[in-house]
TrEMBL record, chains A, B:
<dbReference type="InterPro" id="IPR050109">
    <property type="entry name" value="HTH-type_TetR-like_transc_reg"/>
</dbReference>
<dbReference type="InterPro" id="IPR001647">
    <property type="entry name" value="HTH_TetR"/>
</dbReference>
<protein>
    <submittedName>
        <fullName>TetR family transcriptional regulator</fullName>
    </submittedName>
</protein>
<dbReference type="InterPro" id="IPR041678">
    <property type="entry name" value="TetR_C_16"/>
</dbReference>
<dbReference type="Pfam" id="PF17920">
    <property type="entry name" value="TetR_C_16"/>
</dbReference>
<dbReference type="InterPro" id="IPR009057">
    <property type="entry name" value="Homeodomain-like_sf"/>
</dbReference>
<dbReference type="Pfam" id="PF00440">
    <property type="entry name" value="TetR_N"/>
</dbReference>
<feature type="domain" description="HTH tetR-type">
    <location>
        <begin position="15"/>
        <end position="75"/>
    </location>
</feature>
<dbReference type="InterPro" id="IPR036271">
    <property type="entry name" value="Tet_transcr_reg_TetR-rel_C_sf"/>
</dbReference>
<keyword id="KW-0238">DNA-binding</keyword>
<feature type="DNA-binding region" description="H-T-H motif">
    <location>
        <begin position="38"/>
        <end position="57"/>
    </location>
</feature>
Length: 196, 196
């Protein structure tokens, strides 16, 4: 870090400022985790005023999406999953998940993210903490059972495995079955994990 | 390859011969796939007599186990899964799978294998073809339904995801829940995938 970057509140937004903020956020998520990272701490690490961070990003959530190059906002996915009757939550989860992975841009970004998480402990930690905070906690808070977090975690196992087998390893016939069939297969087991 | 190694049937088993056979098998599995690899072709590729390959390895299956450094014989796992009543097959699969992953040596080897498969297309192909031939085909042949292979493939998604979430990424609470609880969670969904 240069002396100039250490001067808070003085630095105007240059052409690279946004990128530097994202890089500082990435480092903070990796070092301290999602929960312990604040917009203020990211500003301090990037050597800029907190107002500048807020100028580029509405929330820590947006910084997280950018830091991991996520194709979607995890909170939007969580909201989509929670919006509807409890006995169809398995189908909504399967539909939302495949919706992301079946789009070319979504698939490319998610594959890159999975490969990074599986080869880098830092990316794995960022993903783990972000998913816990932004998806597992809101979804499990909605389930009125004592073991809600384990149930949501089991849903994660089924979804992660589907992504690895279908998109990363390409094991047949899962790799080429159509998305509708896959949703039909996933819906009852996701439902079983959550409410069975 | 040296001229000496090209002379079939003349080369005595030296100290590295076994390792060279395994390397030739690995190349053949990666180049041509599991089904198209024969003991004879491996011998030819290694520049040794076929009898020497048979001296070290009883079958192509054993060569495959060695080439991928598998902690167990996939056919033994398949036999274990098939041995019992149909309505408890989900539990037998969960038990067999966690049996491998919960042993320290098994876990270490499987983690290495998963990481290789996710970063190397060659290892991914070897795993994909070997698993198809040695586990998916025998298990799906036992199921008396038209979509047996897709059902067994869906079981693979649940198992692969469990391994990635619990052992590779360490997402809580799945990462630290005890194995018995995990088997109780997996058994009904594996059963649903196969016979639901």
């Amino acid at each position: 870090m240069t002396t100039e970057r250490r001067t808070p509140g003085r630095r105007p937004g240059g052409p690279d400022t946004r990128g530097e903020i994202v890089q500082a956020a990435r480092e903070s998520f990796a070092d301290k985790g999602f929960a312990a990272t604040s917009m203020r701490a990211v500003a301090r690490r990037a050597g800029v005023d907190a107002a500048l961070v807020h100028h580029y990003f509405d929330s820590k959530n947006e910084l997280f999406i950018e830091a991991l190059a996520l194709p979607v906002d995890p909170r939007r996915i969580a909201a989509q999953i929670l919006d509807g009757p409890d006995d169809e939550i398995g189908r909504r989860i399967a539909t939302a998940f495949l919706g992301v992975w079946e789009s070319p841009d979504g698939q490319q970004r998610m594959k890159a993210l999975f490969r990074s998480a599986l080869s880098s402990d830092e990316v794995a930690r960022m993903m783990r903490e972000g998913i816990t905070e932004l998806i597992i906690q809101p979804v499990s808070a909605m389930l009125d059972v004592p073991d809600a977090k384990l149930r949501v975690g089991m849903v994660a196992t089924q979804l992660v495995g589907t992504a690895v087998v279908r998109y990363l390893v390409g094991l047949e016939p899962v790799a080429s079955v159509d998305a509708e069939t896959l949703i039909d297969r996933l819906a009852p087991v996701l439902q079983q994990h959550l409410t069975g």
